[in-house]
Specification:
One of its GO terms (cellular component) is cytosol. The protein has ten helices and twelve strands. By secondary structure, the protein is of the alpha/beta class. Helix 4 packs parallel to helix 5. The N and C termini lie close together (about 10 Å).
Length: about 325
């Protein structure tokens, strides 16, 4: 089985053992990556949500095989563009330079889009202004886009429709929208990224069930968006996914044990810190919803992911 996690926030300090500025345990990135490989994850896209974070993502990707990155400005970081020395032009020029100098590792422009749930960070005007600047990046570089959309009352779909000719393709990640919104995005030739946050409610599940399997992509959005016992999707998990061992007696994958960070053990996940290996839980739920096997579904999604993001990038998947 081959899986690509299209959305892993591996630059987050928690993956280095640092929580809210304080070290709780040693850097366990190597073990995190080992657990992901044991779950069938052969590649990851490390999310770049700002100029600084995108550069950090590239650096991390150069340290570990199978890791690639995005480069862009998250809508909630839009205000930092004007604060950048030289302003917006310098900010996006540096993003373009980062992409040009790392075409072997950067596979998408983003994370970019609109987020009206968190306007306390950046207002609508700034978000829309700098979302448009990132279509310029996609058009200039030929890269697909890694897109973000939260509660935008149709604005996101409108902007995508008006600029669809400017980028080759892409994915709307961590999708939590309606069936109608999903259909609009699919009609625009985009893919839909699914993680635990996409599967919280019965309404979410009904929407995801309507998305064709050849238009789905898998992600964890780790360290966020795990599937929790309170989520409607939890009951759809394969039995093995909730167990605490590497494999069950039949050889299938089982979730590693998790412990609170205060009881950290290098062989265990940290409780409530989602990891790339847990993409198997998302895969298991989707296979259940679409009445197919995990192997069949993983193969179809892997093919789609490679066709969008890795067609022009050398890799050993």
């Amino acid at each position: 089985m081959k899986i690509i996690d299209i959305g892993a926030n591996l630059t987050d300090p928690v993956f280095r053992g640092i929580y809210r500025g304080k070290r709780a345990h040693e850097d366990d990135m190597p073990r995190i990556l080992e657990r992901s490989r044991s779950a069938g994850v052969v590649g990851m896209m490390v999310t770049g949500g700002s100029l600084k974070e995108s550069a950090e993502a590239v650096q991390l990707c150069r340290q570990h095989p199978g890791l690639f990155s995005t480069a862009g400005c998250h809508p909630t970081r839009s205000n930092e563009v004007d604060d950048h020395p030289g302003g917006a032009d310098a900010y996006f020029a540096e993003l373009r330079q980062l992409i040009d100098e790392n075409r072997d590792k950067i596979v998408a422009v983003g994370e970019c889009g609109l987020d009206y749930d968190r306007l306390q960070f950046s207002d609508k005007a700034a978000q829309n202004k700098y979302f448009l600047r990132q279509f310029e990046l996609a058009e200039a570089t030929g890269l697909p886009m890694f897109l973000h959309n939260r509660n935008t009352d149709g604005d996101f779909v409108r902007v995508i429709r008006e600029n669809r000719h400017r980028f080759t393709g892409g994915v709307v990640h961590s999708f939590t929208g309606s069936v109608d919104e999903a259909r609009e995005l699919l009609a625009l030739g985009l893919y839909i990224g699914i993680n635990g946050c996409s599967l919280k409610t019965e309404e979410n599940i009904a929407v995801v069930k309507e998305i064709p399997v050849d238009r789905l992509m898998l992600e964890t959005d780790c360290p966020y968006c795990e599937i929790r016992p309170t989520h409607a999707s939890h009951k759809l998990l394969p039995p093995a996914s909730g167990a605490t061992a590497d494999k069950d007696s039949s050889g299938g994958w089982m979730a590693p044990e998790s412990r609170k960070k205060e009881r950290w053990d290098s062989e265990c996940m940290v409780k409530s810190r989602n990891e790339p290996c847990m993409i198997r839980s998302v895969l298991g739920v989707l296979a259940n919803l679409h009445d197919t096997t995990e192997e069949t579904l993983a193969a179809r999604i892997f093919e789609s992911t490679c066709s969008v993001f890795f067609r022009n990038v050398q890799h050993d998947f």
